TrEMBL record, chain A:
Membrane topology recorded in Swiss-Prot or TrEMBL: Multi-pass membrane protein
A GO BP annotation: choline transport
InterPro entries per UniProt: MetI-like, MetI-like_sf
Pfam families: BPD_transp_1 (PF00528)
Name the UniProt record assigns to this protein: Glycine/betaine ABC transporter permease
Location(s) in or outside the cell: Cell membrane; Membrane
Source organism, top-level taxon: Bacteria
Record field: transmembrane: 21-37, 129-146, 153-176, 196-222, 268-289, 309-331, 351-373, 429-460, 472-495, 515-540, 594-614, 626-644
A single GO molecular function term of this UniProt record: amine transmembrane transporter activity
Organism of origin: Wenjunlia tyrosinilytica
Family: Belongs to the binding-protein-dependent transport system permease family.
Length: 662, 325
């Protein structure tokens, strides 16, 4: 959730040392008080107990439902939105996935879609990603998942389209005005960290069951990156350029369209990329309210614990994500270099594109007209092979590894998780609250301390203090492991281009493979425990930290590394004394993102034995009388996220001011 | 595919494809989304039948058979909607769901949608009886025969210790969709156990499967009918017998769960629409064995719900006849 930009003023080293001492003192004081006061005022609440706030949420939700058919807001506002979005999705589906226009097949068959995907990838990016796109799309067909993939693509495209339609203008506005930015940021935080399970059921009340609700659920999660990154892009345009344009007499509109937008184009395309990724990560959850596509296949397969079939569908989502990611990344590079290409090569490319356009048009026509080009030929059967292989790998792992995995789980639980949890849940609430506020103030300044105080107060008000602390303990342990892995792998990737190339697709898979797919084997390996939830969170969060740290290591000026090597430093010394310290800003950003990603897996953890907030949310989604408690738990997760985001961001800004060589 | 062939071959393929396309467009030219395209010899107008499909295999079995019969015998256009219970019931009011065909109790939802909002009505029982309770894997029941009496559970508490149970025995609770009294039960029966919330059906099934495969101890909350029983015959632990009203005060519960007569619920609008699909839903009734068989086709033989339904319907024509007008 952080886009770090501003640079804080430099601080001399002694300040950092006193800060370190202060942190140590706070923690030591906490431990002492914990020993004395443990077990008092821990604000415990039973699993099926409710507070009056939870009941009030319930009543509110019921009131909306009862009022639905007479309320003008529903009749004239939500219904209109629903109609527009329903039509948009149905249009895309009719184009590529569902029988339409009175025909038994979609308008464009597989050959046409593959051709368009290849052509668009070439036009927006380059030939390499075009080949990747063609390969990826053919792969969906070979997996036996053509129609499901196209449904997912149609839904994702609609959601991304609407996200950008809303997100980019707001992003530009927030980029131009810091007041708007301050106003928008908490809303975006809320949209990104509020667990989807909390608003999934109410959404169907507002927008009915169907594509509209699924699209809106997706775009709630997918719009924030578009807004944030667009705002960041606008703000990153050098002041001097803007001033020059203004001094030449440009109007505001001219400055925006002629200077700011073109210069921010590359970064905005990256925002598009992140929006697509976020939208794809919602595929399985949206399937719970009848969203068509690959998510349904995953959810259905898991009813019978059919890991193979679920994996096959999950793999299709991963492939789609990788294709879309590489194409949009290539597009953002093209956006940057477009102006610099020689005229000759531009002309050659243009001619090539015209030729390819004709071929694409022919393919589309063929796929409209002929059955062989319309419906993907059956019997390729690659999907069955993938499913079978995944099944046997899982079975092997379950029967051969579970001894070792149980040992690992027990060791981690007793050595790391239980102590953390004991201290956090066993201390009186006001003590933990005071510690959090103090740490916030010391690490991030008074503003971060104040934010922490507000968050602590609201968590107490949510009635779920103890559950929040249990969740926090697991999340902190997960983040520690994520950071350890992130540093090791990130440094390796940052230092070796080869390692980067090999590892990156695995990381992409970790980020986009639906958690539901790997939860089943994890459950067999680790049982329904808090540790299983931690492992799931690591799979999802470690890739982000690795990517950020690798990027930071690569950003360390080569001259610094060369100087160290020339002075006789060993590889170990170069890493610990030069590269890691100089990549400090990336490390802090990685911690921030690591924790936020871990928190976004809290609900998934609730499905595999983590209990606490995650379970509260899941139970609230499943049982009417627990809805209010689930909503409160969702809010508590948001609050934890906001608190740590503000503290780590403020700390990062300070770190950026410290000597970092950039 | 066509790419590798010689021109003559390609021409033939194209011609063949064109012919095929003609055939397909000839007989499949039904208008998409058009009302009541009667595929079978349907009697009466059926139109579209919106059937909720809740996410468990037993429900899927009910829905598959009802959908199959509605399509083949009544000529309905069945739209299955994959939804969680809570969302499905909400759909009664918004007119997007016509029927829920396996409901486990859910008195809260009944109160809200049948009594208060009056958007849903009951459509009778499915004939299936649901059992909720505590179960142990078969190997444990064999090795410790007296474990099936809850009075002896404290004797075995040590066996069930895990990393999650803080020194007590672990009672694994599961799917949050089901009401559980286990916290109160453990307290009121004075058991030395801690309830650990697994959070999903998948977590429970994996726990029982691993326990049987590795001969490790586990005790947990489960229910029948459930497809797992065709693979693994779990043994139920007897809690103090259920009597009427013994579970009326949640904190004081010290008795077993009641048996659930699973039932069907339809939207008010559907019930008065005169659709033959409503009569089908109302008359639909079968046994636990029937459901288990279809669930097994789906879960273990990996048949599609449609194929599983067809297989069962073809073998049980007389039963199906009794559901039809």
């Amino acid at each position: 959730m952080a886009v770090l930009t501003e640079r804080a003023t430099a601080r001399p080293a002694p300040v950092r040392n006193t800060r370190r001492i202060a942190v140590a003192a706070i923690v030591a004081g906490w431990l002492v008080l914990w020993l004395i006061l443990r077990g008092h005022q821990t604000l415990e609440l039973g699993t099926s107990d409710l507070t009056s706030l939870h009941r009030w949420f319930n009543d509110f939700n019921d009131a909306i439902g009862a009022d639905r058919n007479s309320n003008p807001l529903f009749l004239y506002f939500f219904n209109e939105i629903r109609l527009v979005i329903d039509n948009l999705v149905t249009f895309f589906q009719g184009l590529i996935s569902q029988p339409s226009f009175g025909r038994p097949v979609p308008a464009i068959g597989w050959l046409g879609v593959v051709a368009i995907a290849g052509y668009a990838s070439w036009a927006l990016g380059n030939l390499r990603v075009a080949a990747l796109a063609v390969g990826g799309f053919v792969f969906f067909g070979l997996q036996g998942l053509w129609q499901e993939s196209m449904d997912t693509l149609a839904l994702t495209l609609s959601a991304v389209f609407v996200s950008l339609l809303i997100g980019i203008p707001i992003g530009v506005w927030a980029g131009l005005s810091s007041r708007v930015n301050r106003l928008v940021t908490p809303v975006l935080d809320f949209m990104q960290t509020m667990p989807t399970f909390v608003y999934l059921a109410p959404l169907t009340l507002f927008f009915l069951i169907g594509p509209a609700s699924a699209t809106i659920a997706t775009l709630i999660y997918a719009t924030p990156p578009a807004v944030r990154i667009t705002a960041h892009a606008i703000r990153s345009v050098p002041h001097t350029t803007v001033e020059a344009a203004e001094s030449l007499g440009s109007t505001r509109r001219q400055t925006l369209t002629k200077v700011l937008l073109p210069m921010a184009k590359r970064t905005i395309v990256l925002g598009v990329n992140q929006t697509i990724m976020a939208a794809l990560s919602m595929v399985t959850i949206a399937a719970l309210i009848d969203a068509p596509g690959l998510g349904k296949t995953v959810v259905k397969a898991l009813e019978t614990l059919d890991v193979g079939v679920a994996f096959n569908a999950g793999l299709a989502i991963v492939v789609m994500a990788i294709v879309l990611d590489r194409v949009t990344t290539a597009a953002s590079v093209r956006a940057e270099v477009a102006g610099r290409a020689s005229r000759n090569s531009v002309r050659r490319r243009r001619a090539g594109l015209v030729g390819a356009g004709v071929v694409t048009a022919v393919c589309v026509w063929l796929s409209y007209t002929y059955v062989w080009a319309s419906q993907f030929p059956e019997g390729a059967g690659l999907g069955d092979d993938i499913a079978r292989t995944a099944d046997s790998v899982t079975r092997w792992a379950q029967s051969n590894l579970s001894g070792a995995t149980n040992g690992l789980r027990d060791a981690m639980t007793t050595a790391l998780l239980n102590p953390f949890e004991d201290v956090l849940t066993g201390s009186p609430w006001w003590l933990v609250g005071a510690v959090l506020v103090a740490l916030g103030a010391v690490l991030g300044g008074w503003r971060a301390g104040a934010t922490a105080a507000v968050c602590v107060a609201l968590i107490v008000a949510s009635g779920l203090w103890r559950d929040s602390m249990t969740t926090l303990a697991s999340s902190l342990v997960a983040t520690v492991i994520v950071m350890a892995l992130g540093v090791v792998v990130g440094v390796w990737m940052g230092r070796s281009a080869m390692a980067d190339r090999l590892i990156r697709p695995v990381l992409d898979a970790g980020q986009t493979m639906p958690a539901f797919v790997y939860l089943v084997p994890f459950l067999a390996l680790f049982g329904a425990t808090r540790f299983t939830a931690i492992v799931a969170a690591i799979v999802y969060a470690a890739p982000v930290t690795m990517k950020i740290i690798a990027d930071g290591i690569r950003g360390v000026p080569e001259t610094a590394v060369e100087a160290a090597t020339a002075a006789g430093s060993s590889t170990w010394q170069t890493i610990t004394k030069v590269q890691l310290p100089m990549a400090r800003k990336s490390l802090t950003l990685a911690t921030n993102q690591g924790l936020i990603y871990v928190l976004s897996m809290v609900v998934v953890g609730g499905l595999v034995g983590a209990g606490a907030l995650g379970y509260d949310v899941v139970a609230g989604f499943s049982q009417g009388q627990l809805y209010g408690k689930g909503l409160a738990a969702g809010l508590a997760i948001v609050l934890l996220g906001v608190m740590f985001d503000r503290i780590t961001q403020a700390a990062a800004q300070r770190a950026a001011g410290a000597p970092s060589g950039r | 595919m066509v790419t590798g062939r010689r021109p003559a071959g390609r021409f033939a393929a194209l011609a063949g494809a064109a012919a095929l396309a003609l055939v397909v467009s000839g007989c499949g030219g039904a208008k998409v989304g058009g009302s009541s395209d009667s595929t079978g010899g349907g009697k009466g107008k059926c139109g579209t039948f919106n059937l909720a499909v809740n996410p468990w295999v037993g429900y899927e079995a009910n829905a598959a058979v009802i959908a199959y019969v509605a399509e083949k015998d009544l000529g309905c256009k069945v739209t299955k909607k994959d939804l969680k219970e809570e969302v499905a019931w909400q759909g009664f009011g918004t007119g997007e769901v016509d029927a829920v065909v396996e409901n486990w109790g859910h008195d809260d939802l009944k109160k809200k949608y049948i009594d208060q909002q009056k958007t849903a009505v009951s459509a009778g029982e499915t004939g299936n009886t649901g059992v909720i309770g505590w179960y142990v894997p078969p190997w444990m029941a064999k090795k410790y025969p007296d474990i099936t009496d809850s009075k002896n559970l404290n004797k075995y508490a040590d066996l069930f210790k895990t990393s999650e149970s803080s020194g007590k025995g672990q009672l694994l609770d599961g799917d949050p969709s089901f009401v559980t009294n286990d916290g109160a039960l453990v307290k009121n029966l004075k058991l030395d156990y801690k309830v650990v919330y697994a959070g999903s059906e998948a977590a429970l099934i994996q726990a029982f499967r691993q326990a049987e495969a590795k001969k490790t101890p586990v005790i947990g909350y489960f229910y029948e009918p459930q497809w797992l029983f065709s693979e693994l015959k779990l043994t139920k632990v007897d809690l103090p017998k259920y009597t009427d009203g013994c579970d009326s005060v949640p904190d004081k519960v010290a008795c077993d769960y009641p048996g659930y007569l699973l039932d069907k619920v339809v939207s008010k609008k559907f019930s008065t629409s005169g659709s033959p699909a409503f009569d089908l839903v109302k008359k639909f009734e079968w046994t636990n064995e029937d459901q288990n068989l279809v669930a097994k086709y789906i879960a273990q033989d990996k048949m599609s719900p449609e194929a599983a339904a067809k297989k069962w319907v073809d073998a049980n024509r007389t039963k199906v006849k009794s559901w039809l007008p």
